[in-house]
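Following up on my earlier message about zinc ion. Here are the inputs again, as you asked, copied directly from the submission form:
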Amino acid sequence: MLAITAQVVVPMLESFSATFFCGMVVLLLLGVGLLIWGWRGKRHGDRPTCRKCDYNLTGITSERCPECGAALTATTIAGGKRRRRWGPVSLGALLTVWAVWSGADRGLKTDWYPLWPTGWLIDDLQCGNDVLVDRIWQEIQRRDNSDGLTTSHQQQLIDACLAEHQRPTGSRAWLGACEFLRDCVTGGKLTGAQIKLLYENIPLPPLRVRQAVRAGDSVPFRIGDGFDMSTFFFGVRYESRPVRFRIDGQSVELPIRITEPGTYLLEVDAQFRLVQLDGGNRLPLPPAREQTLSTQVTVVEDDMLTVLRDPAFAREVRDHTRVDCDSVQLRIGILGVSMPLAFDVFLELDDHEVHVGRALFRPGQPFFNAEQSFRIPVRLGSRRAVTVILRTNLDIVRATLDVTSCWSGELRFDDVPIEASADARRRLFSHDEVQRAQDAARKQPVAP
Ligand SMILES: [Zn+2]
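Thanks, got it. Here's what our run produced:
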């Protein structure tokens, strides 16, 4: 059954029709009946013949048929030889072939799943045919919603979902399994062994550090970069929390600083747990598992940062920068600059500066990072305008995992008008500007 369904690609399944299949069975019986009746034929003439084997008994005087040995009496001797009725034979053959053909054709297009036992359905989730897998999930969900699954079927289905989870690539079957497994996880229906397997199935995210860290700087690291753990379940996320740190086996505290250049082994003990996202709430789903992630850290004397101090570049940066301010928020947009920029953002108020935040702008992903907003930490009172200063801070770059170059300088925007309301929010860059910058970024390789 499994092998057949796996090979049949069915564009659309028709629902099972009892009338049709009963009609086909009646036609089949009729056809076969006609075929047999016509094939046996009708006796013609009055020549004596053996009723059993149709042997010509003309002139035979013995008590038994010389051909088949049957006893010859008045009832076993027939008059005449059988001749086939070709009309009924042809009609019977036609009906038989037609009933078998259309029955088989309709049978392949028919959705048999509503008639299947639930256990078979669960087994067939691994048939590998996306259309059928979708259909099976529909049928399983229908049964689950109408009568509910028995505990043993529920366990069988959880095991099937966990087996699907174990496969390296996501499949259609897994998409269906996600939702079911999510409900089982949040509903506490998984046994201890199943929860253990679930956690084991989730691949460990990588631990990443900056390629080279300057001696004495804090070592920037990240768990799970470029690894979307949220795709595993709808509404359930797999989160990690680093709890202990070791450098070459020695326990260290955050921030991790290494003063001697060299290569070190960084180990991070991290707790992983599934967290249910329920509106604004995050409900942890016990238990968590703890795993150790490790990677090498290279500590260098020198910065290994390419810094551009060209004042001419300042004009380019300025031309690509927009600043927008209301009484609550300051927004800065920088789009289409070829070098990464890292700024401390200040407001100049009367005779002193107020630090508003830090901003990092990267080329190559202008649409993503082009606009950043900052909450203004002071009351602006009745001011109509404010001065904004962007001052390069290379430590922001050093705290990233991957940025190795930066422009260094200062930009000053005098008398930025303070807009009355934060409601009248518009984008700093138009859709066309973002599009153009994206196209340009694709054509031009990113500056080192
Ligand atoms: Zn005979």
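One observation from looking it over: Residues 2-114 form one domain. Hope that helps, and feel free to reply on this thread.
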